[in-house]
Amino acid sequence: MFLASAETELRYKMEFTYSAYKKLLELLQNSGYKDVLYDTWGNYGKTVILRHDVDLSIKMAIPFSKIEKEMGMEAIYFFLLNTDFYNIASDSSRKLIDKICRNGGKIGLHFDEAAYGKQDVTEGILKEKAAMESILGMPITYVSMHRPSKETLEADYQIEGIINSYSRTFFHEFKYISDSRRKWHENVEEIVGSGKEDRLHILTHAFWYRESEEEASKALKEFITSYKKQVYFSLYNNIRDLNEFLKAEEVEDL
Ligand SMILES: [Zn+2]
Q: Fewer CB near the last or first residue (10 Å), C or N of the chain?
């Protein structure tokens, strides 16, 4: 018995690949789910909100937006303002975000409460919303929390002008499924395939997905290497004749 259930678990283990994500979208469509946004779901019966929290790399979110475009589905991409990994105000980031928008993606604020006191969460969200609107030149009407505390998950923040994806509605009245920390905590394919839930809220982190399945350690090492390349390229654009000081081939793993 134990073996049988272990096999079943293995069989349903969703891979962290683009093709597996595409299959999940196909399964959603075949199970009758309509892709919706945080402010349009009320108009439909069986619905799914596709959410992406972009924690580490905007570039790595692009393949997801292409798949969704192919499938004719809408998703929401949440970006951080307060992070050392990317800068949404840079020219290259804005081009990438623009590409996601052209693929049909919607944009929201990914909010890291760690930089604020518990009393200042609402104020912080509104401050970052205004900054993001000014940088990207578009209204920002959705917020998701980056590594939320228990208090934030339970707070049910209702904020004028911005919908909280962790409000009671989207966290409890929807079936919430996430691949946080590169692990599906429930069998997402089975839940979608069964079609039993009327409302789904699926969170994915594009950072972990590749063309083919990789160990987490390898994926992380590749990210560090690509980051080094990015740093060298940025140095190249900012220090005239960088080659005279340091050639690309002199940097390990570049
Ligand atoms: Zn996050």
A: N
Token output for 236: 């190249």
pTM given for the model: 0.93
- Residues within 5 Å of ion ligand 1 by Cβ? 53, 55, 146
Q: Indicate the pLDDT class of residue 5, thresholds 50, 70 and 90.
A: low
Q: How far is the CA of 91 from the centre of ligand 1 (A)?
A: 22
Kindly provide the residue ranges of all beta strands, DSSP E only, lying in the chain, ordered along the sequence: 34-36, 47-54, 76-80, 106-112, 142-146, 163-164, 175-178, 199-204
pLDDT at 254: 66
Q: What's the pLDDT score for residue 102?
A: 98
Residue 180 alpha carbon to ligand 1 centre in Å: 9
Q: How far is the CA of 250 from the centre of ligand 1 (A)?
A: 34
Phi-psi region of 186 (alpha: psi -120 to 50; beta: other; left: phi over 0): beta
Per-residue pLDDT tens over the stretch 172-195: 999 999 999 999 989 999 999 999
- Which of these CATH numbers, 3.30.870, 3.20.20, 3.40.50, 1.20.950, describes 2-208? 3.20.20
CA of 169 to the centre of ligand 1 (A): 20
| Residue 53 Cα to ligand 1 middle (Å) | 5
Tens digits of residue pLDDT in 238-250? 999 999 999 999 9
